[in-house]
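INFO batch 0412 | record 1 of 1 | parsing
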Amino acid sequence: MSLIIDIHALQTVPPSLINRDDTGAPKSAIFGGVPRQRVSSQSWKRAIRDYFEDNFDSETIGDRSRRLPEKIAQRLEEEGLEQAEAIARTESLFKAAGIKTALEKPSKNADPDGAEVSPYPRTGYLLFLSQQQVDRAVRELLARNGEKPTKAEAKDILDTDHSVDMAMFGRMVADDAAYNVDAAVQVAHALGIHASAPEFDYFTAVDDLAEDGEETGAGMIGTVQMMSSTLYRYATVNVEGMAENLGSTEMAKQAVPHFIEAFVKSMPTGKINTFANQTLPELLLVTVRDTRPVSLVNAFETPVDATDTEDRRTVAARRLAQEARDVEEVYGFKPVASFVMALGGLASSFDGLAETVTLPTLTEKIGAELDRALGDS
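INFO prediction complete | emitting tokens
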């Protein structure tokens, strides 16, 4: 039996620029024939990883970097190896694993009298390794005393003991697909539930010291774009996939409630000092399924508008609840369990559809559902 946990949220953000494109504009998308604000899944996944590192065991979060060979080599140096030997042993590991490394070439515009090019090799792309994999690489390379690892040994070092974030969001290794990890968590792009367009904030900054003299006018003038929306957010967790990636059902049972908490409390940090868009979801619906994931985004294919008697959030909550009921009735996808937490009476739309909870009780109940479904395996 597959076990799926779907997480749906409505979250309003005030004027902000939490996720921008290459022109500096808030990211957007056309849905239902109208432009909506969009926050990319990559942006929110990064925020979730940061929340895990700050609020749970930081050792459960890996590093995604081109500089991992440098990290391993420097750890070997801390253990007493000369730099050249540490680099040679590190390169032997990555060569055996079939992962290419190379020295960084100096920039064409680099100052010849400037900083020296790093002697440490780097991978050609961002590589994902857990803290446990890095620790084991250091131990093995020290213990081998210069003996090069075989391909099988290198793969065992770099492809066991995955971090929680790797188990959740997966790993892609361009040099060898055998190292790939299929993501156990899918995160959708957050999407505005109504039509919206960017606005421009014209700002000036005063030169404090210029005020002491006779100079007048602004020390700096500029514009920044911003956008405000109620967003529909969605993620789904494949619990068996999480357990397989982590190599432990017990670890998966701990990671899933933590992921839900991180999903709720995390926030991308783009321009957050400028806009202080520190909101939380006004509504969260969590369903436990034994069928397949089901997004409820089509509840908002027709843009949501407030009415004379109801604000936009109330209309959106009712739309979301109706979509969930329709899916259950038409397709027969009845969840194993459903829970809703909401502000301002928004949970009333889910009467008879989901149990009303708070965040602490939600994580407890999800834990109980996982225990019931997975037992003590």
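INFO post-check: The CA atoms of residues 101 and 123 lie 4 Å apart.
INFO record closed
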